[in-house]
Design a protein that fits this description.
By secondary structure, this protein is of the alpha/beta class. The chain contains 15 helices and 20 strands.
Length: 422
């Protein structure tokens, strides 16, 4: 039997592919030789896209805010933040530099998690703050957006001479791609602003889908918010399956992000045929640290699954479900029809969007979860089927779909963009 390895937490699971089944494996093509991360970053920062360099932007500034991801993203901040600061006009000590973690509605990072993500030198040199979308005292209004949504942002954004952001670009299941404007909305926005952006009507919009920015109402509002916030410069990176930096895009937020999205789409898009059984992961730690994030991998797999197909997803979920509101919403419904009907209509609520996307998949596909972090009884109450091992899950899927069932394996889960011909 041929084996395929799926990222799982900080390790990998081995899947033995059964013989006699048509199998396709969706993986990106080979990358060119990867240069050292520092070289890639320095080259991007030295020739920013559509913008003056950081040396010019920081010449007259004293207070600088750096927006960054939380640890649900594999952002190599211990490399990227020092690289950006090295391009400032004055030595770092000249400035008051604050790093604001764009948590959106996620929980705050702990000090230990900060040290893991940013490294001791960065943690020791700069003030690092968790954004709190629910703390109204930390928010200030930036006025109404063209959609009528009032833009509340962390007041630190308004108090700075210069706001810059780092991030990484991957396909996103309803914002099209991550990066750039998501550092502002939802990253450092207030709860009410996020809820309005993530309302059921936007999530259900046909333009709100993976790897699509055209006519995407969520992306468009977030982009307007980033402009209103005065975000001046970004450094966004692309990563390979081992979380190594393979490309970097710096400069004007919209233009640098567009270049990054083109690169990611070209490297991560894979032609696919719909399959009876789709096996995937959430690309390991940190993306599979909780069940809430695993919805992204499930949604990607659904894009390659035949009608009434079976999806198998392996995710360690070391933080278990991860979001109490997500769990509560799932447990509040007694049937999939009730779940769909309840989640697809206003009003908006915290984590409702994640359940709405999941419900769409569950109505068409059986989803088998392989996870040591989620109690099987709880998972089944939340409409997942479960298996103790990846091979057991495959045996269940074959028993349901038959000995001739076609199989598709997407080892890296949500970072892959399946391009199905239909």
């Amino acid at each position: 039997m041929k084996s395929v390895f799926l990222p799982y937490g900080r390790t990998k699971l081995e899947l033995s592919l059964p013989e006699g089944h048509p199998v396709q494996i969706l993986e990106p093509g080979a990358y060119p030789r990867v240069n050292a991360a520092e070289d890639i970053l320095q080259a991007a920062l030295a020739k920013p896209i559509g913008s003056p360099g950081l040396d010019e932007l920081t010449r007259e500034a004293r207070k600088i805010l750096i927006l960054t991801n939380d640890n649900t993203r594999p952002m190599p901040s211990s490399f990227t933040i020092p690289a950006m600061v090295s391009h400032f006009y004055h030595p770092a000590e000249y400035y008051t530099i604050t790093i604001l973690i764009a948590t959106g509605l996620h929980r705050p990072m702990t000090q230990a998690e900060m040290r893991e993500q940013f490294g001791d030198p960065v943690c020791g040199a700069y003030r690092i703050v968790n954004h709190d979308a629910r703390d109204k005292n930390s928010l200030v209004s930036f006025g109404l957006l063209s959609t009528g949504n009032e833009l509340y942002l962390n007041k630190l954004v308004r108090e700075q001479d210069l706001v810059i952001a780092e991030g990484f670009i991957e396909s996103h299941f309803f914002a099209g791609f991550s990066g750039w404007r998501k550092s502002i909305l939802p990253g450092v926005a207030g709860e009410s602003t996020i809820l309005a952006n993530h309302k059921p009507e936007n999530i259900a919009h046909p333009g709100a889908r993976q790897a699509n920015l055209s006519g995407n109402p969520i992306h468009e509002e977030c982009a307007e918010a980033a402009g209103r916030a005065g975000l001046r410069f970004i450094l966004n990176v692309a990563l390979d399956k081992d979380k190594r930096i393979i490309a970097a895009f710096a400069g004007d937020p919209a233009k640098a992000h567009e270049a990054g999205c083109r690169f990611v789409e070209s490297t991560m898009s894979v032609d696919a045929k719909r399959a009876d059984i789709v096996v995937t992961s959430n690309n390991g730690y940190p993306l599979d640290r909780n069940l809430y994030q695993v919805v992204k991998g499930v949604d990607t797999a659904a894009g390659a699954a035949a009608e009434n197909g079976v999806i198998i997803i392996a995710a360690r979920c070391e933080d278990q479900v991860g979001h109490a509101d997500f769990q509560k919403l799932l447990l509040s419904c007694d049937s999939l029809d009730q779940l769909r009907e309840t989640m697809s209509v206003s009003p908006s609520a915290i984590d409702k969007w994640q359940v709405q996307v999941l419900a769409k998949t569950l109505l068409h596909h059986k989803v088998i979860l392989v996870s040591e972090g989620i109690d099987s009884e709880l998972a089944e109450r939340m409409f997942f089927s479960t298996a103790k091992t990846i091979d057991e899950a495959m045996a269940i899927a074959i028993s349901l779909k038959g000995k001739d069932a076609s199989i598709c394996v997407i080892p890296e889960g949500p970072v892959i963009i399946p391009r199905v011909s239909d």
